[in-house]
Task: structure prediction
Amino acid sequence: RLTLDGAAGAVRSIQFIQRADGKGFLLLGAAMGVYRLPIDANAPDLTLVVPGSPSVRGGFNSVALAGERIVASHSELGLCTWNLHEANTPGRLFESMTKDADAVRDVQRREAHLFASIDDRILRWSADDPAPSAPLVLTGSRATITALCPDEESVFGGNSEGDVLRWQERSEEH
Result:
């Protein structure tokens, strides 16, 4: 058992990342930021926080690695990103879409793309773009997306009404 009581707060989500050398680490979404924890370590080797943030109820509910950037979703703070070489300067993605959102969740990477849900929509954008401006927006859910899972050909989403939806890779609507 390992208890983290660092600047980012209590853990809210966990993502395992496999490195090219076969070793791995965990990205831990927390109340006010993200920890990076090597599998064989007793403490994080990196703590990323959102400075000056208001008090929040939840935390970063998902985290993904995109090259040298970490992207994390938080329903109150939106989609945040940190460059690992400038970790003290977090950025925000798609602020106009997330600022009044009720739910920002499920950031995930599949090959060359990142995905996240904002209320009843799923966004897809290039994992290589550090400042994307126009994501592909997948629509068609009648309720808040609560889970998503991209595969090679489709994106699956579950919503708060119990629906499971599927978007084909070449389609923008369910």
About this structure: The chain has one helix and 15 strands. The first strand starts at residue 11 and ends at 18. Residues 167 and 174 are 5 Å apart (CA to CA). Residues 95-98 form the longest helix (4 residues).
